[in-house]
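Run folding on both entries below.
>entry_1
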Amino acid sequence: MEMMINTFGWQDDTEVEQQSFLQFYVGQQSFAIDLQEVIEISKPLPITRTQTVHPFIQGVTDIRGEVVPVIELAQAFSYPQEKPDERERFIITSYEEQKVAFRVQEVAQIIFVNKAKITTEVREEHLTPYVGGSFTHGEVELFIVQKEKLWDAIEH
């Protein structure tokens, strides 16, 4: 529960519904994914290139004996692929019982957001197919990645 200041300046114990997100970067753009969808974050693992049917899939990697496809989010969002460095990470999530690794340039922090501050409007047209909304944290606008939309684009 979060204490809110009402119009009279008094504290009001109105309950504010919050959602937690993991903030990360693809290129210079800040994104978020629902924290409940994140299984783990790992340093990049070796990627085995495969003859994939979709350009978003960079290949597969082995995570504790499980073969996991690696999705290059820079490719999905039409950003130039940056040279790997020590900040690069894999965000491991799952979709329909299949683990998936999102390759990102940097994982920043966990953010708690008042659900009322999340909008479904996305002004960046090239992100629209894979983003389900946005919110502002401080001075930064974050776009919420919808893994279902990404995976559907890959499968179809």
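>entry_2
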Amino acid sequence: MADARVGDREPGRLIELADVHKSYNVGLPSEAEVLHGLSLTIDRGEFVALIGPSGSGKSTLLNIVGLLERMTAGSYRIDGTAVGSLDDRALTLLRRDTLGFVFQFHHLLPAFTALENVTMPGLIRDGFVSRQQRERARELLAAVGLAKAMDKRPSELSGGMQQRVAIARALVFDPPVVLADEPTGNLDTASSDEVFQELRRMHRER
């Protein structure tokens, strides 16, 4: 089994992609190459947006960076760790400890409150929610303007508020990388601006 060992880190370097290729249906007549020789570096503290038309490979790139899909070829290092030779378990642990996700759909559990949704990653990881995790969740919800909505269920929140809960959930373990895949794509203009500004503010304060 491959281990997620941290290698030599370049100061400030967080994400390094070099000559990355990604193809689907490899070896079949329908084979399609979505990423062709892509290279990208992102340093700590950067706020980066991927902009391009539908079908240009943005989500594929995010899935590779987020350790949800494997590259067809190329190299990828995240926080000093080369991921190419890691097995599925090692990738899962690295993803858990390094990445936070905010998706277009918030994926909040409808039967649980905002606070319970934010603490859910701790329950899944550890089998229980510690006092420190609960306090961290409260701090994050307050930071995104939901101090008075912690006990509300998703159905009682607006779309923008639901996404702010999702942002808090993504930050609960204070990951070095937070990936947002069209986090405002399912919202109206006002709510989209609200969520985007919240992401920018949280980034500045980290």
